[in-house]
Amino acid sequence: MSTVIQSRKACTVNPLKMSQPIGGALAFMGIADCMPMLHGSQGCTAFGLVLFQRHFNEGIPMQTTAMSEVATVMGGLDNIGIAILSIQQRTKPAIIGICSTGVTETKGDDVDGYLKNFRATHPELDQLALVYVSTPDFKDAFQDGWAKAVESMVKGLAEPSSARREGSVNFLVGSHLTAADIEELREISESFGLEATILPDISGSMDGHIPDDFTPNTLGGTPVDAIRRMGEAELTIALGEQMRPGAEALMTKTGQPYVLFDRITGIEATDQLLDCLSQLSGQPVPGKYRRQRSQLIDAMLDSHFFFGGKKIAIGAEPDLLWNIGSWFNEMGAIITAAVTTTHSPLLEQMPCKEVLIGDLEDLEARSAGCDLLITHSHGRQAAARLDIAFLRMGLPIFDQLGAAHRLSLGYRGARDLTFEIGNLLMAQEEENRPDSWPLPMEDHDAHAPFAFG
Amino acid sequence: MLQNKIQEVFNEPGCSKNQSKSDKERKKGCTKALQPGGAAGGCAFDGAKIALQPITDVAHLVHGPIACEGNSWDNRGSKSSGSQLYRTGFTTDINELDVVYGGEKHLFKSIKEVIDKYDPPAVFVYQTCVPAMIGDDIEAVCKAASQKFAKPVIPVNSPGFVGAKNLGNKLAGEALLDYVIGTEEPEYSTPYDINIIGEYNLSGELWQVKPLLDHLGIRVTCCISGDAKYHDVAQSHRARANMMVCSKSMINIARKMEERYQIPFFEGSFYGISDTTESLREITRLLIQQGAPAELHDRTDALIAREEARAWQRIAEYTHRLRGKRVLLFTGGVKSWSVVSALQEGGMEVVGTSVKKSTQEDKEKIKEIMGQDAHMIDDLTPREMYKMFQEARADVLLSGGRSQFAALKNKMPWVDINQERHHAYNGYEGMVNLVKQIDLALYNPMWTLLRKPAPWDMREART
């Protein structure tokens, strides 16, 4: 159990947090043939675009309503209509996902109302799905934007259904899953003979592959039609606490039950997921996963020597912090510093004394003397100043390759992570030296052990 | 206030592009009206930050919601020879309460915290859209903070929604002119002092040119703003000549320094061999005109002769490998022509160069170098560019990061020549490096493997 405290500083130094609208935009990037769009100044989009491009090394589909000063003050609803028509004409997506920003929320544009009118006056666009989500920059964080976008998609697109398709399952996945994690999830559920709809599915769009032809929209992801049919599944499995509102919304809309797993990494977390899939499908856990489980146990045996008692500092969004922090705790390491971006019911349950909602300056101050620092690429300066081992995790990772393919889900993910971090910690072990065990300083006057003379 | 500033910047008499416009056009400003659903560039705040962030020892404090700094900090490639403070991200990260009650007090407290903890020679405060909308007066807050803490606190009033990146560059220049340049006196000055304006030291490329100037005894008192220190900028008005690079992004600084401090300037570039030579000559000419000993002229000529010969010789080593290779040059402004001659010297053919951000002068230069039928591309959609490489109408793409995938996803080589690049391409040294990088990209053995279809696809194609 931990105490959750909020930083009291006026000035944020070295932000850990990123803003809601781009979290929402990334969720929309997990939808097939989609054009995400921010309702804001064109810079709002440009920053997100550069950030994602450097993280994924991919071209990023993302548009803007390009609000000028005048449009912002007078109200920029017409810009939304102009933008939709322009995108429809040029790139013909199946869906446009719209996120508001700080600029448009300050004015308080009623986008929902506007879109209703727009729909009525543009029946020719009936085939184009439009999903809007309110994500002011001056509230909450990246993870919340992702979660709200998923909730909006469920509310706006999923349809109730009386028929249940046997062997069909929905996954709602949080922003802490990489493309590789989602790929692994699909492979696992397919091995139980299940047909999975994963929302959002950035493994189809942001995994770095060579498309057959050029498209300005997303290269893959959850088809809009599959979202509409989510009501037909037997069960919804939500991964990450942030997915609870989305799962609740789906249940309300379709009457479908859901289960939520707040972790994706570690032996017990994977056991629970596979057991759930086994029961749902009526299939035994395939031999290959029993083998992988056994490999994970062996990996933990081989590497636990290097984890025991190690001091770990983590800066991450709540679901990622909970996932990785809980796993470190299981491996015998001690979470000595935990900094996060936004509120979550999980924070109080973190296996550490205190969780701070703060920035990387706070994390740096708490990380002195730690054995390992974990956060996104922006932690590189702090790690260099503190001269401690540094593992990049989360988003953005712009100074290393392959961010989309880091796997931590399932037995295989946990096994590889165990070795990767075990190696980092092993490299930190210090060689013993003649002066490694000095006696305590002696006070010759008062406590000298022998008094001569 | 801000609107007046913007009109003033739009009316820049030193800008030839602006001068060729009608009154009506001029009023509309430097950039085309942004098209909702069809724009992708940076905003004015982004432009201001790009222009000033390279000043290394000051604290750059962004007043706004987390998006403006949180989504973008420490990701520009400007290098420092000293302080790393410019890479620290400072922001007020305003919340709902600030939006309702105003963020001025929050900003003032933030300035205090920054000064207490980091004690920089100055704090730069950047305005963004949301506080501009709710009426936070950053000029007033900065003025109060300057007095209270006895330290320069500089307002940079360039909220994102006033326009595009280019306008932000100029508004940043205005902030330096209004609050920094000329506010301090240097301990001494020499007849060999120059400023370089509009150079951001990306990948440290200023350091490819500095040894040439050092060799001639020419002192760069201040580079605005690559690897600059606050006091150098404040004292830059005592230089004898200014060189303005990077097309016209900071022309207002050069022109107003001429007006206020009688410092003559010229527009030059260190991209390309002939440009580097021309720039060195022009610096020398201006310094001599301003009173430096005339012998500088001969020394410059000797250095140029030596370094040009060395560069051409090194480029010639690649000629037999690069002859006939077709290059698509997709960049803007000065770079649309300044690297062309080096590419041609390397034996390459430039099959197209983009002129979207180029001035009329730039276009004339292109014709001069590439001939009347130079293939100038006004705008190329991502789809068209993709098709160009799909059909192998060019062998290599030289561009910025945005368009890289048009080449790469078609298994064609790409060389990054814009602001996020990892390699430095300035001066003689830089052009040799560029040719080397193109050679490396073209001749990586990997391409053969990538372009070969999988065995089963070949089998299927046969049957």
What does this structure look like?
The complex is a heterodimer of chains A (453) and B (463). With 453 residues, chain A is of the alpha/beta class. Chain A folds into three domains: 20-153, Nitrogenase molybdenum iron protein domain (Rossmann fold, 3-Layer(aba) Sandwich), CATH 3.40.50.1980; 168-206 and 214-286, Rossmann fold, CATH 3.40.50; 291-428, 3-Layer(aba) Sandwich (Rossmann fold), CATH 3.40.50.1980. Chain A has 17 helices and 15 strands. Chain A has helices spanning 20-29, 42-56, 69-74, 77-91, 102-107, 111-121, 142-157, 179-191, 202-205, 224-228, 244-254, 267-281, 287-307, 318-330, 360-367, 380-386, 410-428, and strands at residues 3-6, 12-13, 34-39, 63-64, 95-100, 129-133, 168-173, 195-199, 235-239, 258-261, 311-315, 334-340, 354-357, 372-375, 389-392. In chain A, strands 1-13-12-11-14-15 form a six-stranded parallel β-sheet. In chain A, strands 4-3-5-6 form a four-stranded parallel β-sheet, with helices on both faces. In chain A, strand 3 (34-39), helix 2 and strand 4 (63-64) form a beta-alpha-beta unit. Chain B has 463 residues and is an alpha/beta fold. Chain B folds into three domains: 2-179, 3-Layer(aba) Sandwich (Rossmann fold); 193-308, 3-Layer(aba) Sandwich (Rossmann fold); 323-422, Rossmann fold (3-Layer(aba) Sandwich). Chain B is 48% helix and 12% strand. Chain B has 23 helices and 13 strands. Chain B has helices spanning 2-10, 16-19, 23-28, 44-52, 66-70, 96-101, 104-118, 129-134, 138-149, 165-179, 210-216, 230-234, 251-261, 273-289, 295-322, 335-338, 340-345, 360-370, 382-390, 404-408, 427-442, 446-451, 455-462, and strands at 59-63, 90-91, 123-127, 153-156, 193-199, 219-225, 241-244, 265-267, 326-330, 349-354, 376-377, 396-399, 414-416. In chain B, the strands form three sheets. In chain B, strands 11-10-9-12-13 form a five-stranded parallel β-sheet. In chain B, helix 11 links the parallel strand 5 (193-199) and strand 6. In chain B, helix 4 crosses helix 10, helix 7 (104-118) runs parallel beside helix 9 (138-149) and helix 14 runs antiparallel to helix 15 (295-322). The longest helix of chain B has 28 residues, at 295-322. Chain B starts with a helix and ends with a helix. The model of chain B has no long low-confidence stretch (mean pLDDT 90). At the A-B interface, strand 2, helix 2, strand 4, helix 3 and helix 4 of A face helix 4, helix 5, strand 2, helix 6 and helix 7 of B.
